[in-house]
Every structure is written in structure tokens, then in C-alpha cells.
């Protein structure tokens, strides 16, 4: 399907910015009007590539037919028709059609829902509409939109660049050019290799149209803006997608003997065949759990064949008698849980839908299974643990003046609160906890305000602008990409940009020195060196206007720099301006670092602000290669003059501490990996409860490694890291490489970790982690590398996702146990039934094949669906993470399956014996497996009783499996009502009605004439109902007794979370025991090394 293209007089790369703006009827300052967008969406369609990404319906249909469960039914149907048992064969055909239809409908709907969820995590675009910057999905971008671009963004459509600041795009996926292409705004492009200016579209290839940024390419450096000129299939990549359809084979599948040797065609053929059948049978594609259950299905399929052989063997392989073949069919059908795959699919879809409501978008279904096994969470601080709404609380100038913002918690409003100033004297010596530890590690909780009294200050007065403050504000405003403006229509302040830069920009607006106002007075940006996480700083070069309030010499350009204090301080040769200017000495560096530590210990992120005068006027160099850019940057960021420090406070989210405490109760350890200063990281970590306020609760050799700088952590070898008794809970000044090393260290300790990230450089760690979690506000590259995206960036959303993952895992265990228990019971009944021989010495089956099909397909399937919808158990977050190696098949599930299955099989077998031998003297009749006669009265009545009993047992066991340890009659230990069972079973309406309707369906199948004797091979009963009720009651009492035994003797239970002297998130880390025992310490030390015993730290 082709996408319409906007009409231009010439190709947009040949047009000026104003001509493109006119042709698209847009405005580069305000963007499109809201009322223009629907018209363009209707005209140009969604901004999507039509590459057939959605799964085809026939693929899903074939997948249903290739199911191991369905293959058994096909086999049984073929045998039935082969022996001319038309009724049984017809019913089996109907069951196959029903099973495939239901499975197809459910899985097709599930795929559609997953496509919709994946679309939510697809790349987004920042556009300007009605003068407001908004973020929209790429699919909603239309021609004429003004798009903002920053490093890490995936370009949403073909764009005519109108603003570029060191804007470099990776176009290798489109043109094959490995080196990022620098973009320009001018339209005077030259024909390659000549002095001729391009005048026609054919003069330049797409790779040489450097004022165009192409859809799907990635911004590697800088920032910019542009006008969308083409969307969807009208983009250059869309044109390629329309004409190309490449299939990528796995390695080693080539049939080329000339290139790979004479044996390669044979190897390639067998590998392709393996791939085909593996995919066809679901053994090589899908989530780990889906593959594991597919393998289980085929294992059961071979068990069914083995049981069929057993049936034939007992009957001396007398294949001339059709009854033997039918009995073999019955046994094979009994061992297969036909609805298992469908139930699993639906459960996963329900889980993804629930997570979406909790602001969690699942991009990979395997993450659903992994979440329940997470043992460690490595989280960023800014915006995840904290609000991401930053405010400059303090500013320090070399003149020993500290400016403080008071009475303001609005990060966007520069008029809220006030700014005061005061002279600061050196701080009193801080308290050293390490020196106060006793040999018994006894520590008392002394409030921080008493332990570390604040610095002595002169009385505060209202702040006034001084020359050094003006220069500080000038640098903070211009070395900044954020915008702050007052919206007259909405009557409130609005901001755009990164939170740290917004905080600085708002602070400068308090003194009427914002960036926009300064640029209006003649300050013009000449170059930008964007923030780089590896060096943690950003710089800009500005042209100085002749008349400026700062009284700066206009003959030189100025370089303004901001960044991490340690990184900027090392580049400074001087401190202060005017009379206060002095050379940077080691003593002064120490004083600056002490001031930084003071701010950081109050939970503030500290940035250094610096500047220098460029030697003369700065001009753009001709050589713009990466090496040349690095050389210019190195020159610009040398011999700087430090102007001051800014302390930015980012308050923790209120919900963070309770979420961390919930992780603690669930046996999950939380680590904070942040780019902030160690003191800032430590202060926030204490505030949210990642570490205690008083580290003295731990011995010194553990406490000293709880908070580490990334440089110290990275210096350690793998052996030294492994020798640490505990990995750090806080890593400050964290680089992307540090995150990767942390992942490796955790993995060596058999941990299963979730890692958060938002930047381009976080992509390696996100893809390497067991569960990579990207922030919704992060870069598109980070989202593409992750399995989960948080649309609200909140830490408690991660915990909600883990809770839902555990709920889903627990429910899968429940319905797998429910389905397999019934199969074990049926197999025991049928195998034992081989001993019931009629006058012809043929086995008489105690339950017919169609009765088994009815039970497996209709009676047990819907309760299994209901169990998949169960709410999370109240203690789901009080158990340790599940063992990822065992999966759902824990010892408890396997033992329960055998105990309940044996109990079920024994009860039904006893019922058959009581009816046939107790009442009718053991009369097994003649040909009772084929047709009804008066001699078969006892057998048909016994079958009806067994059928009704087995149905009720399976249905009622679904209620029992709502909790595999607690009694059905007291599922909630906290419920004070005398008999809460009715309330508990009513809670899950789907399960309730599945059980009730399934229970009443027994009467129809037993009493409807012809249907009972000719189809199901049983007949109406009377006194036998007493046996059915009695045996069903015995079965329920048996289940309750086994649960009681497990609880009373504490067997087959999950390992409990061991609690130490202190738990993460416990009242924000403020409340903890005053002593720490050796046994608690032992628990603490062991937790990171074993899966079976964990202490939340």
C-alpha cells in the first residue's frame, strides 16, 4: 500500500526552510495546529511501514494443528474411522474442530493484543503542535510536523533539517555508510566531486542530501529540529521496504557446497529440516516456558504410545478386536491435557493486559516468566527512585557565598519562593561512625541533625545580583538546552528539556537572566559539545554581544561548561572572577570538594559551572571529522575558570520506600546505580531505605563496600569482586561499563537481575540483563534493547510488574497441577481397568474414550482458564523468587500431582468395583466397549457413576488449587468470618461458574437418551449417586488432609525469606534493631551466594 506524498515545487533538499514551511502549510515556531492533524492523518495515513510484521492467521492455524495434543486426537480419530466406529470418529473430529477453533480464536486475539502492546513501546517522537512540545507515537506523525531530535532518538520520518547543533545521524541501515553523517540546514548543497550546486533531484543521492534526516536512522550526537516531509511508505526506507523482502537464515543453513565444502548441502538440509519441524512443533520458537510445555506435550505423546502398547500387550496384541484399539485410544487420550497450551496463552495475555494498566509494557513474553525469578534489581536514581522534578536548592560561589532557594517545591515556576544569601564558615568536623564501632558492633540510632550539626552561617538576607553571580547565571543559562516560558493561555509556567537543565534554567529566570532573554540581547551560540556520559560534562561556545551586562570583552568568544564536579574541577586552572580570581591549588580543590560533599550529603546533585575566554572569535573548522571535533572540544574544555557549584535536589517519590520494603519482604535486593556523587547517592539511598541511616548496624568490612564509587568498583578484578561478602548496594558516578560489570558479578553469584536504563549507552547492559527495563522517557535505542518499558518511569511499577509476574507463575503452577492431576487419575483408572475382563477375556474400560474427551476438553479446560485468572495470593510478595532452573515443576507440584492423581484414580476405581461387584456380582457383560445390551447394564451404570464422580472431583479440585497449601475452607488466614469458603469461591466468578455449570452438565450427559448409551457408553443411575457423593467427599477430605500434612510438618514448602537485623525500605531505613547478632550477620552474608536462603538487605 503506497502512502501519498506532499507536493513540493522541487525535492525538499533543494528548497529553503521557508519554502518547505510554505509548501507544507506549517509554522516552524508553533508547529501544526491541532485541527490540521486529523485531515493530514486521513490524507497520508499512519506513519508505519507496511512490511507484513504481524503474524499471519494461517501461521496460527497451522500452529494449532501441529499441537501435540491435537496430533493425539488426529491419531485417535484415524483409528476410529479405520475400525468403522463412525460415532466415536465423528465425535473426535468435532472435538478437533472445536479445540483448533477455540485455540485459533484465543491465540489470534492474543497476538493482536501483543501487537498493540508492542506498539506502545515503539519509538516515539517529540513534536511541536499549537506551540506546545508533546511526545506522540511515531505512527501519529504527519507531514508538516516540527520534530525535535536529540542523541539516541530514532528519527520518526523523513525530515528536512531546520536546526542542527552538532547533529550527526547513523545512516548505516539505509546507505551502508558506517560513519555518522553530520547534518546541515542550508540548501546550497554541491554535486559530489564538482563545484556545481545541486539543482535537480538526480544530482545527489540520498546519502549526500545532508539537510535531510531519514526515517529509522538514529541520532548519534548533537540535537536539532526538522519539518516532516514524508511518512510511512513514502519515506526512503519505506520505498526500499516496498521493493525488497529479504529472508535471513540462521548460520550454518547454507546449501552452497562451493563456499562451505561438499558436506555443507547435507548439513544445511538437515539443519533446515530441524528448524522447520522445530518451529512447526513449537520446540524451537516461543518463550522458555512455552518450549518447556511443548516438550512436555510430546513427552506425554510418547507416553500415550507406550500405554497403548501396554494395552495391546495385556490383550495379547489381538488387533482383530476393535475394542482393544478403542481401549488403547482411551488410554492415550487420558494422558494428554488437551487444553494446556490454550490456557497458557490466555494467561499470558491477561498478564500483559494487567501490566499495561500498571504502566508496564511487555515487549517480550519471556520477560513475564523471568519476572517471578528476579532476585536483584539494579535501578537508576533520577526519575525512577526520585520524582525527576529537580529544583536548584543551593548555589555556592567562590566568594564563600551560598544562595538558597526557599519555600518552593514547584520545579517549573521561577516566581515561587525566594532566594536568600549568606556567608558560610567552614563546617565543624563531621562525625565518623567507623570510629565509634565497638567489637560487638553495637550501634545506637542518633538523629542526623544531632550527629552532624549544620555549618555555621551568617544571617541570611535577600539575594542580590553581583558580578560573580551574574557570570555564574550566564553560564548556567547558556550552557543549557531547556526552555522555560509562561503560557498566557493556561496561566502557568511550562518547561521542556532534561530535568537537571530545567532546574538550572528556572534558577536563572529567578534573576531575569534566562537563555531566551540573553539570546535576544545578542548572545549567539556558535558551537555545542553535547553531554557525554563517559566524561559527564557539556560545553557551548557563544559569541559575545558588544554591549552586555556582564561587561565581558566582546573580542573573544566565551566557552561555558557544566558537569560533574570532579570532571570539571580537573579542567580548571583558576577560580572566581574579578578581584576574587585566583589560581586553582590543591588546597582550594579540597575546599571545593568539601563544599560539594556538604551539598551532596543533603541529597543534592552537585554540578560545577565554569567558563573560559576563547582566543579570539571562534570559527567553524573545515574538518568536521570525529577526531577533529574531539580536538576542538579538548581545547575548549581546558584552562577553565570555576564559577561555582549548583546543588539540585530531586525529592524521592513517596511510593518508592514502600516498594523497596515490599522487595525486601519478597527476597529481592535493590541496588542503586547512579551517576551522582557518592554523598548524594548515599543520602538518597538512606532516605528511600536502600541502606540504613546508620551503617554501624553492619561490621566495618561490610559497611565500607555498601556504597562505592564506580572508579573504585571498576578497579577491582573479577576475583576481588567475587571475594566481597556483599556486592555494593549503591554505586555512584556509575558509567555504562560499570552496569555491565555489575550484571556479570551478580550472574556469577547465581542471581537473576533486572536492570533499568534510559540512555543510548545503557543499551548493552539492558540487553545483557536477565530482564532489561527501559524508561518510557528514555531513548529509543534503550527501549529497543529492553524487554520491558515503564511508561511512567516509577520504581513501584517495576515492583508491580514483579508481583504480576509472580501471580502469573503461581497461576500457571495451579492450572498445570489441575490438568495433570486429572490425567494421572484417568491413567491409573484405565491401566488398573485392564484387569476387568469380560467373558471373551477382553478388557472392559471403566470409562469410555468420549467420556475422557468430554472431561478433558470441556469439564477441566474452563476451570483451568479460571485458575489462570486467579488474583495474586496475599503472600505472593512474601516468598523468595522461584528457582528459574526448576520452573513450574517444583518438587511440591510433582508430588502433589502424584498424590492427588493417585487419590483420584483410587476413588474412581473403587466406585467402579463397588457398583459392578458389590451390586451386580461382577457381571461385565459382553461387548460392552462397543454397544449396549442388557448384559452390559452393570458396566454402563458403573461408567456413569465413575464419569460423574471424576467430573466432580476435577471441578472441585480447581477450587482446592486456588491455594496449593492452605485449606479451601480458610484460604485467607486473616479472614475472621466463621465460614468464608463461599465468599472465597465467589471471588473468581469465571472459575465459580465453570465449576457450577460443569457440575450440572453431568446430569444431561447421563440422562439424555441415545446420547448416554450410544455416544458416552453409560446409562442413567439411581442409588449409585450415594457412592458418587461419598467418594467425592473422601477425595476432598484426602486433599485437605494432604494440605494439612504439608503445613503441619512444613514439607515441600518454598524456602522462606530470612530476615536479618535490618530490612531495606523499613520505614525509610530509619527504624532498625540496635544490635546485630552473629546469626543475623550469617544470614546477611549467605543471601547473595545461595538461592535457597536470602536476607533482604
From TrEMBL:
Keywords per UniProt: ATP-binding, Cell membrane, Ion transport, Magnesium, Membrane, Metal-binding, Nucleotide-binding, Potassium, Potassium transport, Sodium, Sodium transport, Translocase, Transmembrane, Transmembrane helix, Transport
Domain Cation-transporting P-type ATPase N-terminal: 11-85
Main location per the UniProt record: membrane
Membrane topology: Multi-pass membrane protein
Cofactor: Mg(2+)
TM ranges: 65-83, 89-108, 296-314, 326-351, 815-836, 852-872, 893-920, 940-961, 990-1010, 1022-1042
Highest rank taxon of the organism: Eukaryota
Entry-linked Pfam families: Cation_ATPase, Cation_ATPase_C, Cation_ATPase_N, E1-E2_ATPase, Hydrolase_3
Coiled coil stretches, renumbered: none
Compartments where located: Cell membrane
Reaction(s) catalysed by this chain's protein: Na(+)(in) + ATP + H2O = Na(+)(out) + ADP + phosphate + H(+); K(+)(in) + ATP + H2O = K(+)(out) + ADP + phosphate + H(+)
One example of a Gene Ontology biological process annotation: potassium ion transport
Protein EC: 7.2.2.3
Segments of this protein annotated with the region Disordered: 407-433
Bias kind Basic and acidic residues: ranges: 424-433
UniProt enzyme class: translocase
InterPro entries hit by this protein: ATPase_P-typ_cation-transptr_C, ATPase_P-typ_cation-transptr_N, ATPase_P-typ_cyto_dom_N, ATPase_P-typ_P_site, ATPase_P-typ_TM_dom_sf, ATPase_P-typ_transduc_dom_A_sf, ATPase_P-type_domA, HAD-like_sf
Record field: compositional bias (Polar residues): 410-421
Family recorded in the similarity comment: Belongs to the cation transport ATPase (P-type) (TC 3.A.3) family. Type IID subfamily.
Protein name as it appears in the record: P-type Na(+) transporter
Amino acid at each position: 500500500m503506497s502512502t501519498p506524498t506532499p507536493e513540493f515545487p522541487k525535492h525538499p533538499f533543494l528548497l529553503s526552510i521557508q519554502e518547505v514551511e510554505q509548501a507544507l502549510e506549517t509554522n516552524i515556531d508553533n508547529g501544526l495546529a491541532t485541527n490540521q492533524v486529523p485531515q493530514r492523518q486521513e490524507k497520508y495515513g499512519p506513519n508505519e511501514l507496511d512490511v507484513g510484521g504481524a503474524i499471519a492467521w494461517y501461521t496460527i492455524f497451522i500452529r494449532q494443528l501441529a499441537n501435540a495434543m491435537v496430533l493425539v486426537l488426529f491419531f485417535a480419530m484415524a483409528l476410529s474411522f479405520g475400525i468403522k466406529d463412525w460415532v466415536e470418529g465423528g465425535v473426535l473430529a468435532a472435538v478437533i474442530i472445536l479445540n483448533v477453533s477455540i485455540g485459533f480464536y484465543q491465540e489470534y486475539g492474543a497476538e493482536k493484543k501483543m501487537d498493540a502492546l508492542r506498539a506502545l513501546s515503539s519509538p516515539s517522537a517529540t513534536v511541536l503542535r499549537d506551540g506546545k512540545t508533546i511526545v506522540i507515537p511515531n505512527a501519529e506523525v504527519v507531514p508538516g510536523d516540527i520534530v525535535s531530535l536529540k542523541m539516541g532518538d530514532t528519527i520518526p520520518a523523513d525530515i528536512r533539517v531546520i536546526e542542527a547543533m552538532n547533529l550527526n545521524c547513523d545512516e548505516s541501515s539505509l546507505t551502508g555508510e558506517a560513519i555518522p553523517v553530520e547534518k546541515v540546514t542550508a540548501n546550497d548543497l554541491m554535486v559530489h566531486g564538482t563545484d556545481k550546486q545541486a539543482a535537480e533531484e538526480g544530482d545527489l543521492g540520498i546519502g549526500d542530501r545532508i539537510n535531510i534526516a531519514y526515517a529509522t536512522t538514529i541520532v548519534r550526537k548533537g540535537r536539532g529540529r526538522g519539518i516532516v516531509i514524508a511518512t510511512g511508505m513514502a519515506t526512503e526506507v519505506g520505498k526500499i521496504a516496498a521493493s525488497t523482502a529479504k529472508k535471513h537464515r540462521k548460520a550454518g543453513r547454507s546449501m552452497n557446497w562451493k563456499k562451505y565444502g561438499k558436506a555443507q548441502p547435507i548439513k544445511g538440509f538437515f539443519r533446515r529440516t530441524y528448524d522447520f519441524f522445530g518451529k512447526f512443533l513449537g520446540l524451537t520458537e516461543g518463550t522458555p516456558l512455552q518450549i518447556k510445555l511443548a516438550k512436555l506435550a510430546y513427552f506425554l505423546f510418547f507416553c500415550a504410545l507406550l500405554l497403548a502398547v501396554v494395552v495391546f500387550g495385556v490383550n495379547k496384541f489381538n488387533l482383530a478386536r476393535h475394542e482393544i484399539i478403542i481401549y488403547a485410544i482411551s488410554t492415550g487420550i487420558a494422558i494428554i491435557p488437551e487444553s494446556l497450551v490454550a490456557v497458557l496463552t490466555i494467561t499470558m495475555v491477561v498478564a500483559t493486559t494487567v501490566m499495561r494498566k500498571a504502566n508496564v509494557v511487555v515487549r517480550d513474553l519471556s520477560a513475564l516468566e523471568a519476572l517471578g525469578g528476579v532476585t536483584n534489581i539494579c535501578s537508576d536514581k533520577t526519575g525512577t527512585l526520585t520524582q525527576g522534578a529537580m529544583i536548584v536548592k543551593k548555589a555556592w560561589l567562590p566568594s564563600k557565598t551560598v544562595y538558597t532557594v526557599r519555600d518552593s517545591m514547584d520545579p517549573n515556576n521561577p516566581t515561587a519562593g525566594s532566594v536568600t544569601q549568606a556567608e558560610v564558615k567552614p563546617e565543624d568536623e563531621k562525625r565518623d561512625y567507623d570510629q565509634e564501632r565497638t567489637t560487638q558492633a553495637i550501634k545506637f540510632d542518633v538523629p542526623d541533625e544531632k550527629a552532624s550539626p549544620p555549618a555555621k552561617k551568617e544571617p541570611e538576607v535577600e539575594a542580590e545580583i553581583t558580578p560573580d553571580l551574574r557570570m555564574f547565571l550566564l553560564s548556567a543559562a547558556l550552557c543549557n538546552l531547556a526552555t522555560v516560558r509562561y503560557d498566557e493561555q493556561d496561566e502557568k509556567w511550562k518547561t521542556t528539556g532534561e530535568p537537571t537543565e530545567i532546574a538550572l534554567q528556572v534558577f536563572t529566570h529567578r534573576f531575569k537572566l534566562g537563555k531566551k532573554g540573553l539570546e535576544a540581547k545578542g548572545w549567539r551560540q556558535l558551537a555545542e559539545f553535547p553531554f557525554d556520559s563517559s566524561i559527564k560534562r557539556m560545553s557551548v561556545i557563544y559569541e559575545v554581544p558588544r554591549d552586555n551586562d556582564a561587561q565581558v570583552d566582546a573580542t573573544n568568544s566565551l566557552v561555558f561548561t557544566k558537569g560533574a564536579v570532579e570532571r570539571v574541577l580537573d579542567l580548571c586552572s583558576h577560580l572566581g572572577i574579578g578581584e576574587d580570581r585566583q589560581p586553582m591549588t590543591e588546597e582550594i580543590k579540597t575546599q571545593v570538594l568539601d563544599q560539594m560533599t556538604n551539598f551532596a550529603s543533603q541529597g543534592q546533585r552537585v554540578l560545577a559551572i565554569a567558563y573560559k575566554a576563547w582566543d579570539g572569535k571562534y570559527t567553524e573548522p573545515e574538518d568536521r571529522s570525529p577526531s577533529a571535533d574531539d580536538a576542538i572540544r579538548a581545547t575548549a574544555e581546558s584552562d577553565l575558570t570555576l564559577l561555582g557549584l549548583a546543588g539540585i535536589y530531586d525529592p524521592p517519590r513517596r511510593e518508592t520506600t514502600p516498594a523497596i520494603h515490599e522487595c525486601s519482604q519478597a527476597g529481592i535486593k535493590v541496588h542503586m546505580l547512579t551517576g551522582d556523587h557518592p554523598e548524594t547517592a548515599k543520602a538518597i539511598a538512606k532516605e528511600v531505605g536502600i541502606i540504613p541511616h546508620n551503617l554501624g548496624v553492619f561490621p566495618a568490612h561490610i559497611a565500607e563496600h555498601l556504597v562505592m564509587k564506580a572508579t573504585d568498583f571498576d578497579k577491582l578484578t573479577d576475583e576481588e569482586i567475587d571475594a566481597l561478602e556483599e556486592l555494593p548496594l549503591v554505586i555512584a558516578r556509575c558509567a555504562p561499563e560499570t552496569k555491565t560489570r555489575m550484571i556479570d558479578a551478580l550472574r556469577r553469584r547465581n542471581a537473576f537481575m533486572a536492570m533499568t536504563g534510559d540512555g543510548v549507552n545503557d543499551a548493552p547492559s539492558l540487553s545483557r540483563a536477565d530482564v532489561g527495563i527501559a524508561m518510557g522517557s528514555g531513548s529509543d535505542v534503550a527501549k529497543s534493547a529492553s524487554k520491558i518499558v515503564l511508561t511512567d518511569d516509577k520504581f513501584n511499577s517495576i515492583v508491580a510488574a514483579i508481583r504480576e509476574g509472580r501471580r502469573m507463575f503461581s497461576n500457571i503452577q495451579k492450572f498445570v497441577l489441575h490438568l495433570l492431576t486429572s490425567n494421572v487419575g484417568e491413567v491409573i483408572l484405565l491401566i488398573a481397568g485392564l484387569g476387568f475382563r469380560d467373558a471373551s477375556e477382553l478388557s472392559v474400560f471403566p470409562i469410555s474414550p468420549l467420556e475422557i474427551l468430554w472431561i478433558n476438553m470441556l469439564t477441566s479446560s474452563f476451570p483451568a482458564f479460571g485458575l489462570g485468572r486467579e488474583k495474586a495470593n496475599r503472600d505472593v510478595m512474601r516468598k523468595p523468587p522461584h528457582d528459574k532452573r526448576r520452573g513450574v515443576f517444583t518438587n511440591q507440584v510433582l508430588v502433589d500431582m502424584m498424590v492427588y492423581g493417585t487419590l483420584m484414580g483410587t476413588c474412581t476405581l473403587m466406585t467402579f468395583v463397588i457398583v459392578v461387584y458389590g451390586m451386580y456380582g461382577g457381571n461385565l457383560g459382553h461387548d460392552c466397549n462397543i454397544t449396549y445390551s442388557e448384559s452390559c447394564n452393570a458396566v454402563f451404570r458403573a461408567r456413569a457413576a465413575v464419569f460423574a464422580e471424576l467430573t466432580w472431583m476435577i471441578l472441585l479440585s480447581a477450587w482446592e488449587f486456588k491455594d496449593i497449601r492452605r485449606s479451601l475452607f480458610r484460604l485467607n488466614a486473616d479472614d475472621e468470618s466463621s465460614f468464608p469458603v463461599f465468599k472465597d469461591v465467589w471471588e473468581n466468578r469465571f472459575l465459580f461458574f465453570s465449576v457450577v455449570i460443569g457440575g450440572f452438565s453431568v446430569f444431561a450427559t447421563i440422562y439424555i437418551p441415545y446420547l448416554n448409551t450410544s455416544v458416552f457408553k453409560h446409562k442413567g443411575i439411581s442409588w449409585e449417586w450415594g457412592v458418587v457423593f461419598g467418594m467425592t467427599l473422601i477425595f476432598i477430605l484426602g486433599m485437605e488432609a494432604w494440605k494439612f500434612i504439608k503445613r503441619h510438618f512444613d514439607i515441600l514448602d518454598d524456602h522462606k525469606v530470612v530476615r536479618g537485623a535490618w530490612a531495606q525500605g523499613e520505614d525509610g531505613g530509619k527504624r532498625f534493631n540496635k544490635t546485630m547478632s552473629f546469626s543475623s550477620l550469617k544470614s546477611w552474608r549467605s543471601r547473595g551466594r545461595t538461592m535457597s536462603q536470602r536476607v533482604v538487605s
